[in-house]
Structures are given as C-alpha cells and as structure tokens.
C-alpha cells in the first residue's frame, strides 16, 4: 500500500474477527521490522512479549480488568498481541552487550571507532541519568519509536492494530515477572483483522489542519 494512503486509512481497531489469523510468515516479517526499530544511540531498551496462543492472550487479558475491561476483547479476539516492555535501567553489562553486538555486526573499523561508540552511548546514558534525571522517560520514548514503526508496518501489510495504554501495569508486571527481569510494561498492541462490527472502521479520520501543526520557515 502507498505510504500516504496507509497513514490516512490505518486506525485503532476496536473489534477483531477472532477467526482470522495473520499468516505465520507475515507475522514473522512484522517481528523483524520491530527488531530493526530505530532508537537513540541504538540503545534498544526494549523487550517484546509475544502472545500467539489463546492461553497467552488470556494471561494478558487478566491485566485488563476493572476500568480497563473495555480492552480485554481486543486482546482475546486478536490474532496476536504484543506487550512492549522497557528496561528499568541501563547497566554497564547491557552497554557492553550492545557494544559486542555492534562489533559482531561489523560496525567498527578499529578500536578507536569502538571506543568512540562506547563513550558516546555511555555519555547519553549518564546525561539522562544524572543531568536531566529522566533516564526512564528517555528509555520509554525509544520504546514508543518502536511502537510507531510496528503500527505503520502493520498498516502497510494490511493488518489491523490497536495500541493500548489502558491496562493495569502492576498486574501485567507481576504476571510476567517483569520487575525481576529489569523490565516494565509500557504499552500493549493487538494485531489481527477487524470485525464487521467495528464502528471505528467506518468513521472518518480526524486530524488538526496543517496550518495548526506546521510552522514553515
């Protein structure tokens, strides 16, 4: 699909057809696109929990109760649902893991280039940790970059998606032992194909006009 057409037609799906499943190869393609999401200094502070089975989706839906019950069916009737998790801190060990992966992928021509990457990445982490004092927010911002990449890719692939911030974070974090893994749940995304009953599919898009949101210099 054309990129502009995708931007104008993709939307937050409100109801899914539980009988329709994303083909395996196409879903794996989406996961690979997600893996290649951009992040500041390639920090990749994320982890994705992928629910493909009904049992796995039931575990996620357990965190969509009370005030968030309206989101439960989106998870249960989806083809797949993904929990986007964000790291709660950046350790020296994790920075070294990133650096070793960079080296394995052939990004350094010599030790000077490798040290430059080490210093730059460490510098950003310390800047957000010690000066701006908002390292968690910076990391979560990177996770939302990945969210945008997935939503647009799904639209290009003709797959419907629903990003959801309406869930009980404590319940989800506990269900998947995220704190013990140095992670926290940031956002949940359901993927699949819209139901004929989805009212939002028939509504026109609404965005502010370009004269409101653009300043052309």
UniProtKB/TrEMBL annotation:
<keyword id="KW-0560">Oxidoreductase</keyword>
<comment type="similarity">
    <text>Belongs to the nitroreductase family.</text>
</comment>
<keyword id="KW-0521">NADP</keyword>
<dbReference type="InterPro" id="IPR000415">
    <property type="entry name" value="Nitroreductase-like"/>
</dbReference>
<dbReference type="InterPro" id="IPR033878">
    <property type="entry name" value="NfsB-like"/>
</dbReference>
<protein>
    <recommendedName>
        <fullName>Nitroreductase domain-containing protein</fullName>
    </recommendedName>
</protein>
<dbReference type="InterPro" id="IPR029479">
    <property type="entry name" value="Nitroreductase"/>
</dbReference>
<feature type="domain" description="Nitroreductase">
    <location>
        <begin position="8"/>
        <end position="193"/>
    </location>
</feature>
<dbReference type="GO" id="GO:0016491">
    <property type="term" value="F:oxidoreductase activity"/>
</dbReference>
<dbReference type="Pfam" id="PF00881">
    <property type="entry name" value="Nitroreductase"/>
</dbReference>
């Amino acid at each position: 699909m054309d990129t502009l057409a995708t931007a104008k037609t993709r939307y937050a799906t409100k109801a899914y057809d539980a009988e329709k499943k994303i083909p395996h190869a196409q879903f794996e393609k989406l996961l690979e696109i997600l893996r290649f999401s951009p992040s500041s200094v390639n920090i990749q502070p994320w982890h994705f929990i992928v629910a493909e089975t009904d049992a796995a989706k039931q575990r996620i839906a357990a965190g969509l109760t009370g005030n968030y019950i309206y989101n439960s069916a989106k998870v249960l009737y989806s083809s797949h649902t993904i929990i986007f998790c964000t790291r709660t801190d950046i350790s020296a060990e994790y920075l070294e893991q990133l650096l070793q992966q960079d080296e394995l992928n052939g990004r350094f021509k010599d030790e000077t280039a490798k040290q430059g990457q080490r210093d730059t990445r460490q510098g950003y982490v310390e800047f957000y940790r010690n000066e701006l004092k908002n390292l968690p927010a910076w990391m979560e911002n990177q996770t939302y970059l990945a969210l945008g990449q997935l939503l647009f890719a799904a639209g290009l692939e003709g797959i419907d998606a629903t990003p959801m911030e309406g869930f009980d974070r404590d319940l989800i974090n506990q269900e998947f032992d995220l704190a013990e893994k140095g992670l926290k749940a940031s956002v949940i995304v359901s993927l699949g194909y819209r139901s004929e009953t989805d009212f939002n599919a028939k509504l026109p898009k609404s965005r502010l006009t370009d004269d409101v949101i653009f300043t052309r210099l």
